Amino acid sequence: MAYEIIVCIKQVPDTENLSGEAMKEDGTVNRSALPAIVNPEDLNALEMALQIKEQHGGRISVITMGPPSAAEALRAALYRGADRAVLITDRKFAASDTLATSYILSQAIRKLPEADLVVCGRQAIDGDTAQIGPQLAEKLGLPQFTYVEEIVNLDGRAITVRRSLEGDAEVVRGPLPALLTVVGTANHPRPPAARRMFRYKKARAACELDSAEAQESLGERGLLIEQWGADEIDCDAERCGGTGSPTKVKKIASVKLVSEERVEVDPTNEGLAGLVRELIAEHILE
Amino acid sequence: MRSEGSSLMADESKLWVFAEVEDNRIADVSLELVTKARELAGHYDNGRVGAFLLGHSVSALADTLFEYGCDDVYLAEHPSLARYTTLPYARIITQLIEKGKPEIVIFGATTTGRDLAPRVASELKTGLTADCTDLQIAPHKDALSQKTYDRLLHQIRPAFGGNIIATIITPDARPQMSTVREGVMRMGKPQKGRKGNLVRFDAELPPETQVVEVLERSRVQKRVNLKAANIIVAGGAGVGSRENFNLIREFARVIGAEVGASRAAVDAGYIEKAHQVGQTGTTVRPKLYIACGISGAVQHRAGMQESGKIVAINTDPDAPIFQVAHYGIVGDLNEVIPKLIEAYKENTK
To answer: Which of A2, A61, A226, B34 has a 20 to 30 A CA-CA distance from A71?
Structure first.
């Protein structure tokens, strides 16, 4: 049977490959100097969806919530084989925490054809929270399979997956529809396909275009990236953005990479034995 | 809920911890969190520390939780809870929180805690802060509304690949929820014989929460698992040769550590890339990180500076690695490591 699959992706600053230019003299990171990429594990999620489609047939809709510039992440998904791309963008969505974000994504997903599988990356490299997957599953009332490394079996009504849990492997089975979060070791995401890139590099969302004519023209050629705001997906304003976010950022400090206190240990037998005993007493060494 | 001890008071502030069961014992991280909750409870006039314990035939483990400082243990036992699956655990914990109305609920940032806590927080429509490295109780004044709060949980966590530290608060929604990394908080000493209230909770598990089945769970031997390592012994350019890296391996083997390396050691061919720590390799947060002959380039430090304790061994007293070290040893690793191995063997006989 063919599967209706929704993949959620996020555009993030590339914090993993810090170039020298992004580092400031004092050892902190100049965040604005980091290039925007598709979150790495979201590409693993897309790859998993593409492999399901290749094996069983189906359709893949990729959605992202973000500023207008996040349309670039959707083009990256179209280059790799996504059938449909939707940009969820609205000023009302700014400053959303994970609870508000999962609510907004769930509202968008309700507007799409009913999915058999919702697939997300395990976590994004800017926040590292890994919360959107489980929160979105809860909002949609779906069972969740997190840390998925492999789909062991998929038979139309049920799915069996292998989860990778920090040294343990767990095989679990449950019904469809379901939500998966995918880890980076699941697969090797394919690069953009040249032919699709040639076609979709012209794809644009309405927010990237300055005229209705341009939208119409792209729409006729199947190159208009759909764009939904709060009204299109019936979002309750109270549950979006800062208003809908129970958590607030009180303070942000750049890491200076300096420990608060340091003990000098003598490199003698006595000094080193003292260190070892202290670490054992604190249950750090066992 | 049926209480087997004295009744609970009305005007108290409850701080709860998820008691994760691992190999039929309470996971270390949960005991670390009980210790922390005990400390935080001291900031309230009538703070009570509770833990929720779920499983099948796990009631005996409640004693451990009391000894580490719990006043109350909320116990749910059911055959379907023998193995962790998200839906039944989330259902029971959500019900417990709705009834008990704790101020604060903390989970270990284990794969289980990170699967479970967001599901629960979403259902309760409250805030959750992931992977906290510190928790503090402090007052807060909202700059816009001028509303003041006497005691809010200040949840401190790294973000942006470890490049920033953010302080997150949940001013109005309750409970205030966090997950905390293993090994970041100190584990207190148990008080033998300390008792508390055991509160049994009758688990109601409708069929829709029992649709996921664990078929198999196994330990897979991964060649290098830096992320999960409690202790990492890492070597850098100062190790000097591929052969001499065996000293690092031997040290790691003796103290039960995983082997890490700096980019310089990897580039020099002393060891495989899979062992590389740092922002171009793996970012790690072990309980203990021992840096041997590593100078400490910014990118390496950024990849390991959240380790619980950092020991640095280097011949150069000005090496930047000492800036992040909790214990600095200025000396030759070829002399220092054998002495550390010997001292370890002496003290763990």
So the answer is: A2
- Cβ-count burial of B274 within 10 angstroms (0-12 exposed, 13-18 middle, 19+ buried)? middle
Phi, psi values for residue A104, rounded to 5°: -60, -45
| A14: contact with B, CB 8 A cutoff | no
Nearest CA in chain B to A25: B298
Residue A24 has pLDDT above 70, yes or no: no
Which tens digits make up the pLDDT trace of B294-344? 988 776 887 888 888 999 999 998 888 988 899 999 999 999 999 999 999
CA atoms within 13 A on the CB side of B86: 31
Cβ of B130 and A276 within 8 Å? no
Residue B222 touches partner A, C-beta closer than 8 Å: yes
Q: Reduce the DSSP state of residue B122 to 3 states and report it.
A: helix
**pLDDT, tens digit, for every residue of B120-149?**
999 999 999 998 888 999 999 998 889 999
Q: Do A147 and B164 touch (CB under 8 A)?
A: no
Tokens 């925007």 sit on residue: A36
Determine, for residues B288 and A279 on separate chains, whether the beta-carbon distance falls below 8 Å.
Answer: yes
Strand partners, B3: B199
Is it true that the peptide bond before B317 is cis, omega within 30 degrees of 0?
no
Smallest CA-to-CA distance from A90 within A263, A243, A207 is with A207
A277 by DSSP, 3-state: which?
helix
User: Using CB atoms, which residue from B186, B219, B280 is nearest to A167?
Assistant: B219
Residue B310, chain A, CB below 8 Å: the answer is yes
Region of A122 please: left (phi>0), alpha (psi -120 to 50) or beta. Answer: alpha
List all residues of chain A from 224 to 253 with a beta carbon under 8 Å from chain B: 245-253
Q: Select the residue of A128, A259, A285 nearest B255 (Cβ to Cβ).
A: A285
Q: B45-79, pLDDT tens digit by residue? A: 999 999 999 999 999 999 999 999 999 999 999 99
Instruction: Find chain A residues with C-beta within 8 A of B211's C-beta.
Output: 143, 174-175
- Interface pTM, i.e. ipTM: 0.88
User: In B152-271, where does DSSP find H-type helix?
Assistant: 245-255, 263-267
Beta carbons within 8 Å of B330's beta carbon, 6+ residues apart: A264, A267, B314, B315, B316, B317
Q: Are strands A144-154 and A58-65 parallel, antiparallel or unpaired?
A: unpaired
* Mutation target vs A (from B31, B86, B136, B154; most A CBs, 10 A cutoff): B86
pLDDT band at A260 (very low <50, low <70, confident <90, very high): low
**Whether the Cβ atoms of residue B102 and residue B126 lie closer than 8 Å to each other:** no
Q: What is the pTM of this model?
A: 0.82
Going by C-alpha positions, the residue among A29, A35, A117, A121 that lies closest to residue A72 is A35
- Contact of A29 with chain B, judged by CB distance below 8 Å, is answered with yes
